Automatic annotation (TrEMBL):
GO molecular function: isomerase activity
Domain of life: Bacteria
Domain Glucose-6-phosphate isomerase prokaryote: 29-182
Chemical reaction(s) catalysed: alpha-D-glucose 6-phosphate = beta-D-fructose 6-phosphate
EC number: 5.3.1.9
Keyword Oxidoreductase: no
Pathway(s) the chain acts in: Carbohydrate degradation; glycolysis; D-glyceraldehyde 3-phosphate and glycerone phosphate from D-glucose: step 2/4
Lineage: Bacteria, Bacillati, Chloroflexota, Anaerolineae, Anaerolineales
Similarity comment text for this entry: Belongs to the archaeal-type GPI family.
Signal peptide annotation: none
Protein name stated in the entry: glucose-6-phosphate isomerase
Keywords, alphabetical: Gluconeogenesis, Glycolysis, Isomerase
Amino acid sequence: MLTPIDYPISLDFDAENGTFEPCPQVTPRHLSDLKEMFSDQSTVAQILRENDPLIYEIRYYPFTTTKSDMALAVTRIFPGTIGNEFYMTKGHKHQREDQPEVYYCVRGEGFLLLDTLEGEFRAIPWRAGVITHIPPMWAHRVVNTGNDLLVFIGVFHLSAGHDYDIVARKGFAYRVLSRNGKPELIKQD
Ligand code: S6P
Ligand code: ZN
């Protein structure tokens, strides 16, 4: 556990790699951690029989003070597909109804998917330089459709909480699939 800080702190960010120092926590997400999110379950099972590829990594810095809990997370999504579905984050909705987030795409290309899970959906084309505000109550997922690393920064409050189950249950309205190497948004049944 980090002790709370009440003084300014700066991190040394490597935008090319999507890493920073000091970094107290790195969370890897392998295919087994988000296997139920991909549509092609027979390919998931087949891959998992052989290995468990790393899909993305999250580096956290909790800027926790005695009066605030703002956090920074830098996510690096590797390029690739599971069947014909591009690598993506698990996706979640914040538990608290009053908690937004700001995302900044630092490198790579893909989509930020936003879904209320109650009928409203947006797919924001993403490339380096795009900053998106995610309003409260919108589930969010990032998809890497490029041939290279996709890196983005997220800023949020730790007390926001993360609801992954609701995404697993309801799913996003569209999936991003590769058709002849190009990304296509396909409506979910
Ligand atoms: C946290 C923020 C991000 C994600 C990260 C991985 O609110 O949205 O830091 O945690 O991009 O995505 P996921 O869906 O596995 O948490
Ligand atoms: Zn979030």
